[in-house]
Specification:
mainly alpha, two-stranded antiparallel sheet, 13 helices, 2 strands, 53% helix
């Protein structure tokens, strides 16, 4: 005996049904037996809606002997212990089809099945730490997964961005589908995140809220990046987004020197060279709200992180029933109070100033949804060789215009 434990031979208890299990990460969860592993994979692959065999509001209880009686409750328990549908199929190399985004959306809908009652966290139990850790955990399953959308589609784009940024280029280029792909990634994180804290919502409603809040996040991320342009790219990244320490370590290893490279302002992006939107009004709206956000955040990392959370629970102009609206308002209120308390602890804020700032921040978050829509639907991608003239310098008399 050399004193070492062979983990592959060590038995543990399955966190789903209580049967014997080998302790290793499987679909995002630890200690899952072979039977539950196969069950979970089949349910996700079948893409069926499950219904509990017990009448509401009862819920089945089961063990290794009765686990096959109710598939709905067994699947809910799988989700409750951390098993992630996005990771099904990750144990083998697969050729991704052109509709990979559709597959992710379909699996995400299963992930937050309406029958999932095992993760019901009340608003009072949700702290800032609870919310942020859950978002970071879910984002890691998307960003760090070897076969995920980020690694297969966006990692090389970020590599190219970093190489351009290191050279201090004033025309950093991105592919035309970059924002669309980022939006799909944000959808994939937002949907299971919301399902953890809004368990009574239907899958369709969660889907609509996630897609709406992801549009807000598109605008908010762009704005928050401009709040942190005086540090490094790594500082800009970790202060603007909700990302885990594991992903930051991945960035340090993948992009050597990122902690020393100067942050990138928005006017360095080729996609935001005017005219970049169909109307000057859209460009002015985005610029005005980014300026307001910079002024309100004032380089405060804590405010930036809380704004991310507020955006996730603040769908804009979305039709919801009274119960759904009330549940969301509870989270909006709780996060707004977190921002208020944080500001009130700063010497420059009194009660009135803190309340006014929270109100203005909430309005900017709402406006960032419109900014996200403009980014998603309205960015003009100019072809190489296009000549963009300054309208202020154009010779109007030389134009052939018939009035």
């Amino acid at each position: 005996m050399d004193g070492k434990i062979n983990k592959s031979e060590t038995c543990y208890t399955c966190s789903v049904c209580g049967d014997e299990a080998t302790c290793y990460k499987l679909y995002g969860a630890e200690a899952v037996c072979h039977s539950c592993r196969i069950f979970f994979r089949r349910i996700v692959t079948a893409k069926k809606t499950l219904t509990c065999i017990m009448p509401e509001p009862d819920k089945c209880s089961f063990d290794k002997f009765t686990r096959n009686k109710c598939r709905s409750c067994r699947y809910s328990k799988c989700l409750g212990v951390g098993m992630n549908p996005f990771l099904v199929g990750s144990c083998r190399q697969v050729k991704q089809s052109s509709d990979v985004a559709k597959d992710h959306t379909q699996q995400a809908r299963i992930f937050c099945s309406e029958s999932d009652k095992s993760r019901n966290l009340s608003v009072s139990e949700c702290t800032k730490k609870t919310l942020i850790l859950k978002y970071e955990e879910l984002s890691d399953t998307i960003y760090l997964h070897p076969q995920g959308v980020y690694m297969k589609k966006l990692f090389q784009v970020d590599q190219l961005f970093y190489e351009q940024a290191k050279l201090n280029q004033r025309k950093i280029e991105f592919p035309s589908d970059y924002i669309v792909t980022i939006k799909k990634v944000l959808d994939s994180i937002a949907l299971p995140f919301l399902a953890n804290f809004l368990p009574g919502f239907s899958t369709d409603t969660l889907q609509r809220i996630a897609e709406n809040s992801s549009i807000t996040m598109l605008g908010l991320y762009t704005g928050l990046e401009q709040c942190f342009v005086h540090g490094s790219i790594l500082d800009q990244f970790q202060h603007s987004y909700l990302v885990s320490p594991a992903f930051l370590d991945f960035c340090r290893k993948s992009f050597p020197g990122i902690e020393h490279s100067k942050a990138v302002p928005i006017d360095s992006y080729d996609m935001f060279k005017s005219p970049w939107a169909p109307s000057i009004e859209d460009e002015d709206f985005v610029e005005e709200n980014i300026v307001n956000l910079i002024d309100l955040v004032s380089g405060d990392v804590e405010v930036a992180r809380l704004l991310n959370l507020l955006a996730l629970f603040s769908p804009v102009r979305l039709s919801l029933n009274k119960k759904e609206s009330f549940s969301l308002k509870q989270f909006q209120s709780k996060i707004s109070i977190m921002i208020y308390n944080h500001l009130l602890n700063k010497e420059v804020f009194d009660n009135v100033a803190a309340l006014e700032s929270v109100s203005k921040l909430a309005k900017v978050v709402e406006n960032m949804n419109r900014c996200g829509q403009i980014f998603q639907e309205g960015i003009i991608h100019h072809q190489e060789g296009d000549v963009l003239e300054d309208i202020e310098k154009m010779d109007i008399g030389a134009l052939d215009v018939n009035f």
